[in-house]
Design a protein that fits this description.
The protein has 2 helices and 8 strands; from the N terminus they run E-E-H-H-E-E-E-E-E-E. The chain is of the alpha/beta class. The radius of gyration is 14 Å and the shape is globular.
Length: 134
């Protein structure tokens, strides 16, 4: 992601990461959106906000990978993006076998679910890998 966001701050806590399949990403986003809707998770400013959705998305992906016995964490990251008017928004960055993608982890927050990083017009401010996967 740093090639497409050279000024972004990068941090991580794991030693090894691996790309995921794009097919897995499609299924996982569908599942996370359905799960959030089923339990009534909605965006509430400063309550269950965008970074909580992004963190939860990454945390569950890491736990599922660990449960499947993978030795590398999935390359999913909380990505902070610049928004109009100086606002910020947390989404998820994912490295797949088909390239880099930005994912909206909130079912009711955006006009898209998955978008190639190359097509995303916003500026990436930071990329945090594995910060919530001890």
């Amino acid at each position: 992601m740093l090639r497409v966001a050279p000024l972004a701050r990068l941090s991580g806590s794991d030693d090894s990461y691996t790309r995921v399949s794009h097919a897995w990403l499609e299924r996982y986003v569908t599942w996370t959106w359905a799960a959030a809707k089923a339990v009534g998770l909605r965006y509430v400013p400063e309550s269950f906000d965008c970074e909580n959705f992004a963190t939860l998305f990454c945390e569950i992906a890491a736990k599922k990978a660990a449960g499947a016995g993978t030795r590398s964490a999935p390359l999913v990251a909380v990505v902070t993006l610049a928004q109009p008017g100086g606002a910020r928004h947390a989404m998820v960055g994912v490295a797949t076998d088909r390239g880099l993608y930005i994912v909206e982890p909130q079912p009711d927050a955006g006009p898209f679910r998955i978008k190639p990083v190359a097509d995303y017009q916003g500026r990436i401010l930071s990329v945090v890998l594995g910060a919530y996967n001890p």
